[in-house]
Design goal:
The chain is of the alpha/beta class and about 325 residues long. The protein contains 11 helices and 10 strands. It has 2 domains: about 150 residues, Periplasmic binding protein-like II (D-Maltodextrin-Binding Protein, domain 2), CATH 3.40.190; about 140 residues, D-Maltodextrin-Binding Protein, domain 2 (3-Layer(aba) Sandwich), CATH 3.40.190.10. The protein is elongated, with a radius of gyration of 26 Å. The N terminus is likely disordered.
């Protein structure tokens, strides 16, 4: 009897110890950063929606934060330095950076530490000309004063490539002006330049404001030149700006476009990127409500213009969905 009582006491003690033992500590949430762009741009609100989706997905167990930046060029440097886990890039910038070509900061210095996740929306190359200039096509830009975006910008590269595809060399222009979008719009309205290139989301306020007076018009590109452009540069797609997108725009305009895309550090765990990608596509309505440009993202468009090898996690997700490049 004494032994039985002693045994019961031991068991009771063990049960009490188990009951009083602290519960296993919850696994701390991993913090991941998403490099976006300026707070008044398009990248930032879309990145914000993605961060909320990811942070609210319990199976991910992460807290995603958004970092404002100077845009694609800055984001490549953040990825190179390992200071961002995900980043928004224009796909031509991603292509130049990954392959170490195109732009001076990347020449001979490829950035291999990033991989594609999905494309988000097209950034259409708007070509705007003054009606007084008589410019009706890209070839008509010969002998004209043309703004091509800031020096070293993606827009500058887009402009020079499109001009070349139409047989227009830099020396064929009366002047080639490298200024910001706002300065280019002001110079168009003042008649200082005859035309300007803007690589920007359709419906952008700077374009809407410039076209509001009716003194400027959008220029369409030729289909043969567009095909040649896409064969030479794999990051281009062709986009259509529907009639009446802008005031005084009475017909549909066909233009080259580059894609805004999300990339991840290639060293990010495959399963994390897989679950991150799945969370975004499981919550597309929430993402679409963040910005009009985000409505372009569907499963069917997710790999359009993809300029990088896919991250294994993203590749696994799209393979499961039957989506191929």
């Amino acid at each position: 009897m004494t032994r039985v009582v002693a045994s019961m006491v031991v068991v009771a003690g063990l049960l009490s110890a188990v009951a009083l033992a602290p519960a296993p500590a919850a696994q701390p949430r991993r913090v991941v950063t998403i490099a976006a762009g300026s707070v008044d741009g398009v990248y930032y609100p879309i990145a914000g929606a993605i961060s909320r989706i990811a942070s609210d997905t319990k199976s991910l167990n992460i807290r995603a934060t958004v970092e404002s930046s100077g845009g694609s060029m800055s984001n490549v440097q953040l990825m190179r330095a390992g200071e961002a886990d995900f980043a928004f890039l224009q796909n031509d910038i991603a292509y130049y950076a990954f392959n170490g070509t195109g732009l001076e900061p990347f020449a001979g210095k490829p950035v291999k530490s990033m991989a594609g996740v999905f494309s988000v929306y097209p950034s259409a190359v708007h070509i705007v000309a003054t009606r007084a200039s008589g410019v009706k096509s890209v070839r008509d830009l010969k002998g004209k004063r043309v703004a091509v975006g800031p020096l070293g910008s993606a827009t500058e590269q887009n402009a020079l490539q499109i001009l070349a595809a139409h047989g227009v060399a830099e020396g064929d222009l009366a002047a080639l002006v490298r200024v910001s979008f706002s300065a280019a719009a002001d110079q168009l309205k003042a008649g200082v330049v005859d035309a300007a290139f803007f690589s920007i989301a359709v419906g952008a306020p700077v374009i809407a404001d410039a076209l509001a007076s009716g003194k400027l018009a959008l220029i369409s590109v030729g289909s043969s030149a567009s095909d040649a452009l896409m064969r030479k540069y794999p990051f281009y797609t062709i986009d259509e700006i529907p009639a009446n997108t802008y005031k005084h725009q009475e017909r549909e305009i066909v233009v080259p476009a580059v894609m805004a895309m999300l990339v991840a550090r290639s060293s990010m765990p495959e399963d994390l990127v897989y679950r991150f990608t799945k969370a975004v596509f499981d919550n597309l309505p929430q993402l679409h409500s963040a910005h009009a440009a985000a409505r372009n993202l569907t499963l069917q468009t997710a790999l359009v213009g993809m300029a990088l090898p896919l991250h294994p996690g993203a590749q696994r997700f799209f393979k499961e969905k039957g989506i191929a490049r």
